[in-house]
Amino acid sequence: MRLPTLLLPLALPTLATSPLPLIIWHGLGDTYTAPGLHEVGQFAQKTHPGTYIHYIHLSDDSSRDRSSSFLGNITTQLTTVCAQLHSNKNLLSRDGKTLRVDALGFSQGGQLLRGLLQRCEGLSIRSLVTFGSQHNGITQFQACGAYDVLCKGAMALVGAQVWGPAAQGHVVPAQYFRPVDAKTGHPPREFFEYSNFLADVNNERESKDWRYKTAIAGLEQFVMFVFGEDELVVPKESGWFGEVNVTTGEVVSVREREVYKRDWLGLRVLDERGGLVFRTTPGRHMELTGEVIREVCERYFGGERAVGFREFL
C-alpha cells in the first residue's frame, strides 16, 4: 500500500486518558513492512503522541508474511494472531490478561480483524475502522498480475474445487468467497457447509454463535469505508455488508438483509446507538489520501475519552 505525503495533523482534542494501542492488518498481497502501512502508523503517533502501534504479521519475514495473505488457513491464522497480541505486553491492560485497542484493517485485513475480534478471547476493540474490506465476501476472485506467481499459484489451488479442502483449508480468498444463486438470491448449499471462514463469522449458519454478536455490539464504533470507484472488490458494497441482486443489479443494503433484521452479528444494536458508520471515499481500491487518514486518526483513535472533540462531516 502506498500513500502520498501525509498532511500535518489538525489541532487535537483534549484527551482524558493515554491513547489506546492501535493494531493494523494489511491486505491481500501486502506485507507488514510496507512503507505505506508504516506511514499510517507514524501519522497516528503524530496525531496522538504515545500511541503504540502493532503491525499484525504471520511471519517476521516480510516475504513469508505476504505469502500468508494468499495461502493459509484463516482459522489457524486468527489463533496465531490472537496469541501474538496476548504475548505483547504493550497491548495488555493493567490486569495483564485483557487487550483494549483500536484497530485498522485494509482490504482483506478488515474482515480478518473483525473475525479476530469475534474469536479472540480477551480482545476488546474500541474503534474498528476498515477500508475496502469484504465483510460480506466476494462473488468473484481478482485477476492476478502477469508476473504474480504467488497469486497464480493460489488460484490454481482453487480451480473448479472452491469448496474442496485444498481451497478452503489453504487459499485465503476462497475462505471468504460467497457467490449468490441468481434463482434463489441466496448462497449455494456448499457455502453453508464448507466455507471455512465467512459463513461462520457472519453467523449465517443455522447454528449461531451469539458470542459473535456480543463482540460486535461491544464496539463503540465500527467504521466501514468503501472506495467509490472500486472495481477490484466484487461487489464493492461488501465493505458495508451489502450485496448485489445478481438478476437486477440492484444493491441490497445491510439494513434490508436478515443478518441485520435478525441481528445475528449485533450490527443493528450498534447501528441503533449510532456506532455503525458507513463511509465512502473517492478513488479506486486502496487509493487513499493523507486527508482521509488524518480524519480517521483524529476522529476514531486516541484516548478512551475526549473533551471538546471536533466533529467531522
Automatic annotation (TrEMBL):
| Xref: SUPFAM superfamilies | alpha/beta-Hydrolases (SSF53474)
User: Where does the source fall among the domains of life?
Assistant: Eukaryota
Keyword tags: Disulfide bond, Glycoprotein, Hydrolase, Signal
Lineage of the organism: Eukaryota, Fungi, Dikarya, Ascomycota, Pezizomycotina
Protein name as it appears in the record: Palmitoyl-protein thioesterase 1
Enzyme class (EC, first level): hydrolase
The family classification in the record reads: Belongs to the palmitoyl-protein thioesterase family.
InterPro entries, sorted: AB_hydrolase_fold, Palm_thioest
